[in-house]
Specification:
The complex is a heterodimer of chains A (294) and B (564). With 294 residues, chain A is an all-alpha fold. Chain A contains 13 helices and 2 strands.
């Protein structure tokens, strides 16, 4: 499989960029220190207050000290805010996806292996989760949660709680197919426990479809996080996230185009890279799809 | 005086932006303006909110509002001049500003001759009395709270639908005379008489809550069509003439108002000025950074802007009943630490906000007296702050700051972050406590739920020190049930007595001097940290003439502009 993936140029490019973004997120404090900046310090002297607080100088105030310029209205270093923003954008998306996969497999396999009534019950729950409009409910949920809860963790949990329906449905479908296979039936006949069948016989068969689906979920969750932050219910100030930066940039797009471009471009690049990775995985793992022309 | 905060008003009330106020500059375009030859054309008004209600009983305006004042003439009205002259009231339906007697507890007005409703019926004193009475009806909520507080024996009046007997303390001995008997001396009565509740309402045409579908006009225009929150079209009222109204020029023949637009869209349309937008103005969309970046660069846009100041202060409010803010040293230390430059920038830069060290905004009419008891310089004095904190025995404390979860009223995350960063320099850790904007004043306005430190904003119902200081510092105005604005929960009998003494003054200049002195005195206690005062910058279309910010509200007055 790895050999197949290596030949897939889209996958390789996506993996490199995605890996780089994860690396940036992890090393954000180091990178900011390297630039000699942090993401909270205001630099009022770098702003033109009479003109609404746009950064003085061309290109959003790019200088030797501020590599990507400063934020309009506050003068905070944009480079530091962008790399710290990666922590939230990438971190929340990864954590939410992991949680969704966990919930999805648990519910999906239980429904698939359980009896008629358990299946019917759990399937309705899954239908319900699938039917819920994520953004709307997440906005209301996040608005009522007390302030002192750790925000990024909360974001990941809310996104996951509202978004595990897809993984559950796929897990259930795959489990229903797998349980009719001879080797699963054999294990059941030989008296293996429910838990053992799920773990030893079903889970390995789920890996490929779930991995592919999860890779697609990551960029989707990133969009949801950016959307929630854009709507003002994401992370709390002064913590930066790309969605929140895009939101505050909407009023500046003419006065300081770079301020819109940078978080927008980063978000776009990261999303694209994760989608490329997901597509590569799908081609490599799902033989039925390899024949389909792209 | 209890309820008003203009920002809220502009969101809830208003038919007209109720923003606007102090110093302003006239633009060059009205050099040769002649109100006698200005008539004609269709004016477009592009607004974000407003026109939610059109009933004069339900509007909460400053000086009668912008659009409402085209339909409703009141006993007095704002003087409609730029600068300081504009901070004074002027007679409208009445012949003068009113005659006080009994130590400013009784106010007598006489109506001028030749005034008619849009159907040609003459306006009588009884119509004005009826207009005020119906504003007490629970079916028509939304007006300013002063009437119930000031008029003698009216505290429990339920409006003419339930109690047709009316309010005994408003007397109409004949068709041309109306007398108000107040519970206490109120020298500011001529300012209150600019409110739309003082507009005449013919009892025979009153349909209760449905009246606002077509309110009967006494002003230069009447309603042709009205769809709440969306559109309003005004056409000329034939029974009004400049002969009986010197203050309104009423130049356009027709006025078309569209509401529900995005602020950025409005300003972009005004900049571009395509087609009918060349004849457009806005009364509630202050320019954004997009336009500010183009202003002051000598571009053509510089000639199409009004700059005014609505008397309003954004400040940090301490709850002095909560530790550690019960300790004056802590409040002083934070006053030294504040960085007003970053707050100004957070609000949109020096064009739309100015730093304030006084609670009263810098308008002479309010009694402004400069003081800076805890000098923080432009960007804060963290060293001094640390030293005072050490004296208080509280180095590196952690405090909570409450603020609104969006920036629509200028006390949201942007300003909160700036305050957080400034206090950090003094070793103070600020935990941010965002509260939903819709419930913010419910939480902060109830002493039981009020946080220790909260961002707040306060604006004047009219250009005078009273409505600015009384709700904030009068100890008898602490309302434990909710709707409290005395966030410091400060109650000093000496200050309360001084407030009563100033209220009895009928000479605005004498009152102003004492309001200013009172503000400077209270300022020493560091009950609040004043942050900024408001400045208003509005764009208008290419063909719009005689647009200037009036001194009362800081925005252009539609009753005076022309598009001919």
């Amino acid at each position: 499989m790895i050999r197949v993936l290596r030949k897939d140029r889209g996958f390789v490019a996506g993996a490199v960029v995605a890996g780089l973004m994860v690396l940036v997120a992890i090393t954000a404090p180091l990178l900011a220190a390297l630039a000699g900046q942090d993401y909270t310090t205001y630099h009022d002297t770098l702003l033109d207050s009479a003109r609404g607080g746009v950064p003085s100088g061309p290109l959003g105030g790019i200088s030797g000290e501020h590599w990507l310029g400063v934020e309009p209205g506050t003068g905070r270093d944009l480079f530091a805010r962008l790399v710290y923003g990666a922590q939230v954008s990438v971190g929340v998306a990864l954590a939410a996806t992991a949680l969704e996969v966990l919930l999805g497999i648990t519910f999906g396999v239980a429904a698939g292996l359980g009896g008629r009534w358990l299946d019917a019950g759990l399937s309705r729950v899954i239908d319900l989760v699938l039917a819920v409009p994520i953004l709307v409910l997440a906005v209301s949920l996040l608005a009522i949660v007390p302030q002192d809860w750790p925000r990024p963790l909360l974001l990941a949990t809310v996104i996951a709680l509202l978004g595990w329906g897809g993984t559950a449905r796929i897990s259930r479908g795959e489990t229903l197919t797998l349980r009719t296979r001879d080797y699963v039936a054999a294990a059941q006949v030989s008296g293996a426990s429910w838990w053992r069948v799920a773990r030893r016989e079903i889970l390995p068969g789920l890996t490929a479809p779930i991995l592919t689906y999860a890779a697609l979920l990551i960029p989707y969750n990133m969009i949801v996080e950016a959307g929630l932050s854009f709507l003002g219910v994401g992370v709390r100030p002064p913590t930066p996230s790309w969605g929140q930066m895009l939101s505050s940039a909407t009023t500046w797009f003419r006065a300081d185009p770079l301020y819109v471009f940078l978080p927008g471009a980063l978000l776009f690049l990261t999303l694209l890279s994760f989608v490329l990775v997901a597509n590569g995985l799908r081609r490599a793992l799902d033989p039925r799809q390899t024949e389909v022309p792209r | 005086m209890r309820r008003l905060v203009p920002a809220v008003l502009s969101a809830t009330v208003l038919l007209a932006g109720c923003q606007g106020g102090g110093g302003g500059d006239t633009t060059g375009s009205n050099a040769a303006f002649d109100p006698k030859t200005c008539q004609g054309g269709t004016l477009t008004v592009l607004n974000q909110g407003g026109i939610t209600h059109l009933d004069p009983a339900r509007l909460y305006t400053s000086g009668g509002g912008n659009l409402p004042s085209l339909l409703f003439r009141t006993l007095t009205t704002r003087n409609r001049q730029p600068g300081e002259a504009g901070t004074k009231p002027a007679p409208d339906l009445a012949t003068d500003l009113g005659t006080p007697s009994d130590g400013a507890k009784t106010w007598t007005y006489h109506l001028r001759d030749g005034i008619f409703f849009e159907d040609g019926t003459p306006i009588t004193a009884a119509d004005i009395k009826y207009g005020i009475e119906r504003s007490f009806a629970p079916e028509l909520p939304g007006g300013a709270p002063y009437f119930r507080d000031w008029l003698a024996g009216a505290a429990d009046y339920q409006g003419p639908y339930k109690q047709p007997g009316g309010i005994k303390s408003i007397e109409t001995p004949d068709d041309k005379t109306i007398i108000f008997k107040l519970r206490k001396p109120e020298g500011d009565f001529p300012f209150l008489a600019t409110a739309t509740q003082f507009a005449p309402v013919p009892k025979s045409k009153d349909k209760g809550a449905e009246y606002e579908a077509h309110p009967i006009s006494s002003g230069p225009y009447q309603v042709e069509s009205y769809e709440p929150k969306k559109s309003l079209v005004l056409v000329r009222n034939k029974h009004w003439s400049t002969q009986v109204d010197e203050l309104r020029y009423a130049c356009p023949d027709r006025i078309e108002v569209t509401a529900g637009l995005d602020s950025a869209v409005i300003n972009q349309r005004l900049v571009t000025g395509a087609g009918q937008d060349a004849n457009a103005v806005t009364t509630d969309a202050v320019v954004g950074p997009e336009q500010l970046a183009q202003l002051g660069t000598g571009s053509a846009l510089d000639k199409r802007v009004t700059r005014g100041e609505f008397p309003s202060t954004t400040y940090l409010a301490f709850n002095t009943k909560k530790a550690p803010f019960d300790n004056p040293k802590v409040r002083e230390a934070l006053s030294y630490a504040i960085n007003r430059t970053s707050v100004v920038n957070a609000l949109g830069g020096s064009a739309v906000a100015g730093p304030s060290t006084t609670f009263l905004p810098p308008q002479k009419a309010l009694g402004y007296q400069p003081y800076d008891h805890f000098p923080a310089g432009d960007t804060g004095n963290p060293d001094k702050a640390k030293q005072v904190l050490a004296e208080a025995g509280l180095s590196n404390p952690t405090i909570d700051l409450a603020y609104q979860n969006d920036d629509s009223e200028g006390i949201g995350p942007k300003v909160a972050s700036a305050v957080q960063e400034a206090f950090k320099q003094a070793g103070v850790t600020v935990e941010l406590n965002a509260i939903d904007t819709a419930t913010y004043r419910d939480v902060t306005g109830k002493p039981a739920t009020q946080p220790g430190l909260a961002l707040a904003t306060w604006g004047a119902d009219w250009p005078s020190g009273g409505p600015f200081l009384i709700p904030i510092f009068d100890g008898r105005q602490i309302i434990t049930a909710g709707g409290n604005f005395n966030l410091a929960q400060y109650n000093d009998p000496e200050v309360n007595a001084e407030i009563d003494a100033i209220n009895a003054l009928t000479d605005p200049a004498a009152a102003a001097a004492r309001w200013g002195a009172l503000d400077a005195k209270i300022g020493k206690l560091a009950l609040v940290i004043p942050l900024t005062h408001e400045k208003d910058v509005y764009l208008y279309g290419k063909n719009v003439k005689n647009a200037y910010a009036d001194g009362w509200r800081g925005q252009l007055d539609i009753a005076r502009i022309s598009i001919k």
